[in-house]
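Subject: for your reference before the review

Hello V.,

The reviewers asked for a structural picture of the protein, and I figured it would be easier to keep everything in one thread rather than splitting it across files. Below is the amino acid sequence we used in the manuscript, unchanged from the supplementary table.
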Amino acid sequence: METLIVHPKNKEQLSALKAFVKALKIEFTTEKSPYKPDFVAKIKRSQEQMKEGKGVKIAVEDLWK
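And here is what came back from the structure prediction:
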């Protein structure tokens, strides 16, 4: 079997997904992120900026100079 990971964008979508899965009698588990949503958003934004070439890369060796 496969495991599906879904990312609802709001509470309404989350509730609908849970109701759908329960109606089909499919087992599921939930996990809460240990990180605050605003922190996660900042990290994702930074990752996008790096993809766009808007970042600076520093070699590990240069950290000790």
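For the response letter, the relevant points are probably these. The chain has a mean pLDDT of 92. Residues 11-64 form one domain.

Happy to draft the paragraph if you're swamped.

O.
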